[in-house]
């Protein structure tokens, strides 16, 4: 029996490799030039591990029991802040003021492109996650955001909300204001009401460029999984409830389409398409369809929004950036040039963090 073991193992290994070659094109299409099959399989293992950490054996009762025990042990829900960057975190000092005194209510995770010259200041450098290459007009930004979600879910089961921000984002309200807006003042209730938590993500169906964006990978490339009438666009930056973060990690169907190579780079911004489309198709009523990040698209160029400069920083600007046409206020804003940091720090305590 023992003498045949090496033979059995060899046959099993050959069969496994054969199955990978046969089914890998269905699971991990090879049309993405920005990532390797090894990267994709590595991410898939990470996402599955994060899902198992929550769902356990997959039975709903197991999950509810686990959440109940967690809530009894420590009833303090947290917000995970996901920083996605390919340049220096210029505004780290401002974010440090935003977080100060509330370390028990948040976690930070930083995905920094390892192919860019990025300097991550302390204490943010201690929150770096294993990261991979990112490129505009490619699905690598989607992959990076999913990677951040998975790491945050694995790291702390008390992370109930996940806020994605960029290196050009700044807070325009205090942390307590943001925390209460999402979770209220009753931690036990926050755990028990997770199925009712809403996600804050822009979801648009009337964008004038929708046809061009839909066809960016080819005329019929998105069919049949994503019909045109279900295709949506929106802002890249979001605040997701935990159930929606898990939905993103479990998705395979839409990811196979949105990871296809773009043919028309002028209309292809996968990270602005994938999340709005997936959540709109899966749970439209669970999303506010509104982003909490104020972005000024006046005078935008090459897909970039308006960039605020230091002379524009004022009390009036912060107050205007907070205003919205929705019942939800803006909590963050972008895009700011590095020279904005000194004037922002000057008004941080008296204006930005005074709600």
UniProtKB/TrEMBL annotation:
Keyword set, alphabetical order: Glycoprotein, Glycosyltransferase, Membrane, Signal, Transferase
A single Gene Ontology CC term: membrane
One Gene Ontology molecular-function label: glycosyltransferase activity
UniProt-listed InterPro entries: BC10-like, Glyco_trans_14
UniProt membrane topology term: Single-pass type II membrane protein
Location in the cell: Membrane
Protein's name according to its UniProt entry: Core-2/I-branching beta-1,6-N-acetylglucosaminyltransferase family protein
Species of provenance: Linum trigynum
């Amino acid at each position: 029996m023992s003498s045949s073991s090496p033979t059995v193992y060899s046959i099993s290994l050959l069969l496994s490799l054969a199955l990978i070659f046969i089914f890998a094109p269905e699971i991990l299409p090879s049309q993405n030039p920005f990532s390797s099959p090894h990267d994709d399989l590595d991410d898939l293992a990470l996402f599955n591990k994060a899902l198992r950490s929550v769902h356990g054996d997959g039975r709903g009762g197991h999950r509810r029991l686990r959440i109940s025990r967690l809530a009894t042990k420590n009833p303090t829900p947290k917000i995970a802040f996901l920083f996605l960057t390919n340049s220096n975190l210029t505004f780290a000092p401002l974010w440090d003021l935003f977080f100060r005194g509330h370390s028990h209510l948040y976690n930070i995770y930083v995905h920094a492109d390892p192919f860019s010259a990025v300097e991550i200041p302390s204490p943010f450098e201690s929150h770096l996650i294993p990261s991979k290459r990112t490129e505009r007009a490619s699905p690598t930004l989607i992959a990076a955001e999913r990677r951040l979600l998975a790491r945050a879910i694995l790291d702390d089961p008390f992370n109930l909300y996940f806020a994605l921000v960029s290196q050009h984002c700044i807070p325009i309200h205090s942390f307590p204001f943001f925390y209460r807006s999402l979770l209220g003042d009753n931690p036990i209730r926050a755990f028990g009401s997770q199925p009712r938590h809403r996600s804050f993500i822009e979801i648009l169906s009337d964008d004038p460029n929708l046809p061009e964006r839909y066809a960016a990978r080819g005329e019929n490339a998105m069919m049949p999984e994503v019909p045109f009438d279900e295709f949506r666009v929106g802002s890249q930056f979001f605040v997701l409830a935990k159930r929606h973060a898990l939905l993103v990690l479990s998705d395979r169907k839409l990811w196979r389409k949105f990871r296809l190579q773009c043919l028309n780079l002028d209309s292809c911004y996968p990270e602005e398409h994938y999340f709005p489309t997936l959540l709109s198709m899966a749970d439209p009523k669970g999303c506010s369809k509104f982003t909490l990040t104020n972005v000024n698209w006046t005078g935008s160029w090459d897909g970039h929004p308006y960039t605020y400069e230091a002379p524009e920083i004022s009390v009036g600007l912060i107050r205007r950036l907070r205003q919205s046409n929705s019942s939800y206020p803006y909590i963050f804003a972008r895009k700011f040039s590095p020279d904005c940091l000194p004037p922002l720090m000057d008004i941080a305590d008296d204006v930005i963090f005074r709600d």
